[in-house]
Amino acid sequence: MTQKKVAILISGGGSNMVTLVDSMTGNHPARPCLVLSNNADAGGLTKAADRGIATAVVDHRPFGKDREAFEAELVKPILASGADIVCLAGFMRVLTAGFVSQFEGRMLNIHPSLLPKYKGLHTHARALEAGDARHGCTVHEVTPLLDDGPVLGQAEVPVLPGDTPDVLAARVLEQEHRLYPAVLERYAAGDRTPVLLA
């Protein structure tokens, strides 16, 4: 079996990127080929380089509001890497339909809610405000609609008395680190059956 090449896009510390990279060992159906960030100061770039993975930076700021121009540059290192799969792992830029369509059916994202609930930002605060008893995270295929693609996996956590958004976020992040590698391994092997973690 030929290993699929995976490009991972980050904006910050890259904790989900690290769990993905560290899971791709042995007979895994995928291997990391690039870690790409829109932020030259992203801590995850150093972590990737320390693991021997190629890194690249395309800063969005010089492009202002011209997202298409930014994405025209962003796609270049991805294509040059030969990536078969693109994983968004804390990449804090909304991508246009034009960009997403280039990787249709092979781009994944992890989102900190049980989609379709709480698309967008501030998911933990919104779950608390709604009085939810369960919260969690979702890995989904990326489509042009924000946080809307087919669900490939979910992990749930209980919402506990006294939870703050930060406390709840930390509990969800632990599950993100379990869920994303599990989904990627299955996805890279050609299996789209959703992964469900309790």
Automatic annotation (TrEMBL):
Site residues (Raises pKa of active site His), renumbered to this chain: D147
GO CC list: cytosol
- Start and end residues of each Formyl transferase N-terminal domain: 4-184
Tell me the active site: H111 (proton donor)
Q: Which pathway, metabolic or otherwise, does it act in?
A: Purine metabolism; IMP biosynthesis via de novo pathway; N(2)-formyl-N(1)-(5-phospho-D-ribosyl)glycinamide from N(1)-(5-phospho-D-ribosyl)glycinamide (10-formyl THF route): step 1/1
- Give the EC number(s) under which this enzyme is classified: 2.1.2.2
Could you cite one Gene Ontology molecular function of this protein? phosphoribosylglycinamide formyltransferase activity
Q: Which UniProt keywords apply?
A: Purine biosynthesis, Transferase
Mind telling me which InterPro entries this protein's record contains? Formyl_transf_N, Formyl_transf_N_sf, GART
Report the top EC class in one word.
transferase
Q: Which reaction does it catalyse?
A: N(1)-(5-phospho-beta-D-ribosyl)glycinamide + (6R)-10-formyltetrahydrofolate = N(2)-formyl-N(1)-(5-phospho-beta-D-ribosyl)glycinamide + (6S)-5,6,7,8-tetrahydrofolate + H(+)
Positions with a binding annotation for (6R)-10-formyltetrahydrofolate: R67, N109
Q: Which residues bind N(1)-(5-phospho-beta-D-ribosyl)glycinamide?
A: G14, S15, N16
What is this protein's function per UniProt? Catalyzes the transfer of a formyl group from 10-formyltetrahydrofolate to 5-phospho-ribosyl-glycinamide (GAR), producing 5-phospho-ribosyl-N-formylglycinamide (FGAR) and tetrahydrofolate.
Entry's family note: Belongs to the GART family.
Q: Which PANTHER family match?
A: PHOSPHORIBOSYLGLYCINAMIDE FORMYLTRANSFERASE
**Designated name of the protein:** Phosphoribosylglycinamide formyltransferase
This protein's species is Tritonibacter multivorans
Primary gene name: purN
